[in-house]
Specification:
alpha/beta; 7 strands; binds S-adenosylmethionine; Rossmann fold; 11 helices; 7-stranded mixed β-sheet; 297 residues; globular
Length: 297
């Protein structure tokens, strides 16, 4: 599978004004001050390639109409005739790296986020891929946006957000309320077991004994790493049927030597894809991808 990389854009000189909603719902983490570091540390690296590759493979398997084309996502010259455009919400979509790929497939994508900085980079990405006409951007919290748009979307992506919000159950309720009948939710969350494993491998035993997993202010380690059992319980209370799960970065982040972490990227990618749906590797994923369908049964 080949992965599209975004060209590295120069850092804008005149940054747009900071969001007038500094923290979204009180305490939710606005990424205005993290936007460029997030891009450099995740999407400009193999980390980001693995994230996009697993998500793309999962959606190809679990919702084939999202990706009609096998393998590479370079669709220029591809055949759109078989493609039924979906209405997609990228909730807390940040720089929209993944949802831009879905817009490339011909789908209509709405991105909402509380960070104007992240949305500005999302617009740049959409422009690079020439998909602006299929994307709209809203500077608004997910909670408010979803309350204003009930039963509106065929597919909602909420990737790497629940670990940054104070009231995750409210967030999930709002997301589900914005799904159309039979709509799908693609949720990823930061798995606390991944951070425990990493600390064990580094012999940081006191951190584990203190249950000290929160990132410090200004770090890319989430404020609320999530326990998979908690997320499962929250989802089980909602009108959803859980369809499938996979792990994202099941071994890459555990490679202790930074120099070795960048070795043989193609082989790492292939193995990450292979292990992401097999236990025990799946449960060790730095992120867990849960795919559900709205169901009132
Ligand atoms: C780790 S980034 C993930 C971005 C993107 N979903 C991805 O997977 O690359 C988390 C994003 O959630 C946004 N965010 C946090 N709380 C939010 C909320 N309540 N409503 C909307 N966006 C929120 C942040 O501003 C940030 O852009």
């Amino acid at each position: 599978m080949s992965i599209r990389r975004f060209p590295i854009l120069p850092k804008p000189k005149n940054l747009p004004k900071r969001s007038s909603i500094p923290n979204g719902k009180e305490g939710d983490r606005n990424f205005d001050d993290l936007a460029h570091r997030f891009k450099r540390n995740v999407y400009d690296r193999l980390k980001g390639d693995i994230r996009l590759a697993v998500l793309q493979r999962d959606l190809q398997q679990w919702l084939p109409e999202a990706f009609n084309f096998d393998g590479a996502v370079d669709l220029h010259g591809g055949d759109f005739s078989a493609c039924k455009p979906l209405k997609i919400l990228d909730a807390g979509g940040g720089q929209a790296q993944f949802s831009c790929l879905l817009a490339e497939q011909g789908h209509q994508v709405t991105v909402c986020d509380i960070s104007s900085e992240m949305l500005s980079l999302a617009r740049d990405n959409a422009a690079q891929l020439q998909v602006e006409d299929r994307m709209t951007f809203h500077l608004e919290s997910i909670q408010d946006f979803c309350a204003e748009h009930p039963q509106s979307f065929d597919l909602i992506l909420c990737h790497a957000v629940v670990e940054w919000v104070v009231e995750p159950q409210l967030l999930l309720e709002r997301l589900v309320s914005s799904l159309k009948n039979d709509g799908h939710l693609s949720l990823t969350y930061y798995n606390v077991n991944g951070i425990k494993m990493k600390n064990l491998l580094r012999a940081n035993f006191q951190k584990i004994l203190d249950e000290d997993y929160q990132g410090y202010r200004g770090s890319l380690t989430p404020t609320f790493p999530r326990q998979p059992e908690d997320v499962h319980q929250w989802l089980a209370k909602l009108p959803l049927e859980l369809l499938a799960e996979s792990g994202i970065r099941c071994f890459h982040d555990y490679i202790l030597e930074p120099d070795q972490r960048v070795l043989e990227p193609e082989k790492q990618l292939e193995l990450e894809l292979r292990f992401s749906q097999q236990e025990p590797w799946r449960s060790l994923g730095r992120y867990i991808h849960v795919f559900s369908k709205q169901s009132f049964a």
